[in-house]
Amino acid sequence: MRIELRGVSKGRAERALPETSLTFETGRVTLAVAETEQRPTVLGLLASGRMRADTGEVLLDGRKDAAGIRRRVALVDALEVSEPAPAVTVAGVVAEELMFAGASPNPFAARRWLDDLGLGELAGTPIGNIEPAARIRILLELAALRKGVEGIVLTSPDRHGGEPQNWWRVATEFAERGYAVLAIAGRASQSVLSVEIDASLPADATEVVPAASEGEDETPPPTGETAPEQVSPDTGADAPTADDTVAADTDPAPGIGADAPDTEASAPTEDER
C-alpha cells in the first residue's frame, strides 16, 4: 500500500497547513516534520483520509479513494481527535478498543492483553501518567487489532516527552511488521533522530515533508549532506480561525475510523471509527 499526498494544504492562506507533499508505504516508516500545535493533527487527518484538503490530492496506490484510506489507515493519538482521555485507565482504553476489534471488552480480557504485551502492571494507571514509549506501544498495538488496517499515522508522539528514539523504534518495528507508518513530529525530534535513522535504517527508509513556509530562513546543510525540508510555522500568519480548526473528540479509543465521511474540519464519531 502506498499513500501519497500531493501538494495538499488546509485553511485560509494555508494557515492550518502549508502546501505539503509526502509518501508513506508498506514496510517503511516516514518521518514528517510539522510544527505548531495544530498542524500535526491537520496533516494526520489528511494523510488518513479523514479531512478534505483545500488544495492538492491524497492518493491510495495511485488513485483517489478516501474511503479506502480511512478503512486501511489508523489515525493514532491525534490531539483532541483520537487521543485517549488522560484520566482513563490503561485497562479502560484497552477494553474499549478490544470491543471495536470484535473481542471481549471486559477488564479481565484487557488485563490479559496487557500481560501478553508485558505491560500488565500498567492496567490501573491513567494513560496520561504512563511513560511515552509504553503509551505509543499500547496505542499502536491496539490500532493493529482492527481488521483491514495496513497503515498507521502516529501524530505528535513527541508531545508526551521522553527520548524520541524510544517511540521511533516502536514505529520502526511496526514498519518491519509490514505496516505503512507515518510519524508526524516536530523539528527538534527530527534533529535528534537523524543519527538514529542513519545508524539503523536504509538511507531511503525515511522522508520528511518537503514543504516549508515562504520566507523561512533555512540553514545550509553540512558539506555532503542533504537538508530535509520541513513543514514549519508561518510566523507571519494570524492564528487559525474556527474554520481551520479540527474539532475535538474526547472518546478514549485510539481512533481508527473506518468509514467516516470526508470532512472539512471535524473528527470521526464513535460509530464511524
Descriptive report:
- The chain has helices at residues 39-47, 66-72, 90-100, 107-116, 132-145, 164-176, 187-200, and strands at 2-10, 17-25, 29-33, 55-60, 73-76, 151-155, 180-185.
- It has 273 residues and is of the alpha/beta class.
- A four-stranded parallel sheet has the order 3-7-6-5, with helices on both faces. A three-stranded antiparallel sheet has the order 2-1-4.
- Helix 6 links the parallel strand 6 and strand 7.
- Helix 3 crosses helix 4 (107-116) and helix 5 (132-145) runs parallel beside helix 6 (164-176).
- The longest helix has 14 residues, at 132-145.
- It starts with a strand and ends in a 73-residue tail after the last helix.
Topology readout:
Elements: E1 2-10, E2 17-25, E3 29-33, H1 39-47, E4 55-60, H2 66-72, E5 73-76, H3 90-100, H4 107-116, H5 132-145, E6 151-155, H6 164-176, E7 180-185, H7 187-200
Parallel strand pairs: 3-7, 5-6, 6-7
Antiparallel strand pairs: 1-2, 1-4
> What composes the largest sheet?
4 strands, parallel
Q: What do the pLDDT scores average to?
A: 78
Strand content: 15-25%
Class computed from helices, strands and strand pairing: alpha/beta
- Structural shape: globular
The helix/strand order is EEEHEHEHHHEHEH
What is the total tally of β strands? 7
Percent helix = 25-40%
Radius of gyration equals 18 Å
End-to-end gap:
21 Å
Strand order of the largest sheet: 3-7-6-5
Which residues sit in consecutive blocks of at least 5 with pLDDT less than 50?
200-208, 210-273
Helical stretch tally: 7
Brief summary:
The protein is an alpha/beta fold and 273 residues long. It is 29% helix and 16% strand.
